[in-house]
Write a structure and sequence with these properties.
Layout (H helix, E strand, L loop, with lengths): L1 H27 L29 H30 L3 H31 L1 H6 L2 H23 L6 H12 L6 H4 L3 H16 L11 H4 L11 H5 L1
The protein binds protoporphyrin IX containing FE (HEM).
Length: 232
């Protein structure tokens, strides 16, 4: 019963909140004074901001941000490739997930740790941090530690052979939790916390991910300076 909720109900709730929440927030400006007015500009640029912290602790933001973003891109690709491999029994793709996922996971965890450490140790940054800033980092650290613990510490791998078909059953609207019931507890916790993260996503500053990469194509160049110049 509980497993049906966690592996059938929760994925659909998370997907609904993730996609619906982003669209609602994008067009309704529900967090700002434009509430109720349906317009793309209603979201308000300040509410949609990443609340950049680069102004303080400038020497550590580069390493934190680069590791988080490259780690995340590698993890995303590795998961998709691995799940397709798992669903269609293609060992090479599942192996790709193993090694690229492990590399991406280590980069990601390092970046997340550094980002949390910056928030806790740089006084101005600590003062500007909100509950949400910490919640995102802590949730992602939990998800990543569960993922890496299985693959890098316990050396358990190949769970994609169960998770791939399960995701396939969800996508074809014929959900079957039996595919995933037998996987190790740590992998289950990994999936559950990831789904909770996706449900929370639209209500955080992370919404920038759906527009910033698009703006990037035509926004003006930003003049960046070398790290040595910052230290002076
Ligand atoms: C924020 C999102 C997520 C992060 C940061 C994340 C991170 C990770 C990491 C670091 C690993 C270890 C990879 C390796 O060492 O090769 C992993 C493995 C895994 N992840 Fe995720 N993950 C996320 C979302 C998900 C979701 C949504 C699912 C399933 C619906 C999932 C299912 C799995 C499975 C099944 C494995 C083990 C693969 C295997 O044993 O074949 N992950 N994840």
């Amino acid at each position: 019963m509980i497993e049906n909720f966690l592996f059938i109900g929760l994925p659909y709730i998370a997907l609904f909140l993730m996609i619906g929440g982003i669209l609602y927030r994008l067009f309704s400006g529900f967090m700002g004074s434009y509430r109720g007015r349906w317009d793309l500009s209603a979201r308000g640029d300040f509410l949609w901001s990443t609340r950049s912290t680069g102004f303080f602790g400038r020497t550590s933001i580069g390493a934190a941000s680069l590791n988080i973003h490259w780690g995340m891109i590698l993890l995303l690709i590795a998961h998709i490739v691995g799940f397709v491999g798992g669903a269609y029994n293609m060992t090479a793709l599942v192996d790709f997930f193993r090694w690229v996922g492990m590399f991406g996971g280590i980069l990601f965890l390092y970046g997340l740790g550094l980002a949390l450490w910056r928030r806790l140790t740089i006084p101005q940054l600590k003062a500007m941090s909100t509950f949400e800033d910490y919640a995102i980092l802590v949730l992602l650290i939990i998800v990543t530690v569960f993922g890496l613990y299985q693959s890098a510490v316990k050396l358990v791998f190949g769970v994609s052979y169960s998770v791939g078909p399960w995701l396939g059953s969800l996508l074809t609207l014929q959900p079957d939790a039996n595919y995933i019931k037998g996987i190790p507890l740590v992998n289950k916790l990994h999936v559950i916390f990831a789904l909770l993260f996706f449900a929370y996503f639209p209500f955080t500053k992370l919404v920038h991910a759906v527009t910033f990469p698009i703006n990037y194509l035509w926004r003006p160049y930003i003049n960046l300076r070398r790290m040595e110049a910052l230290k002076r």
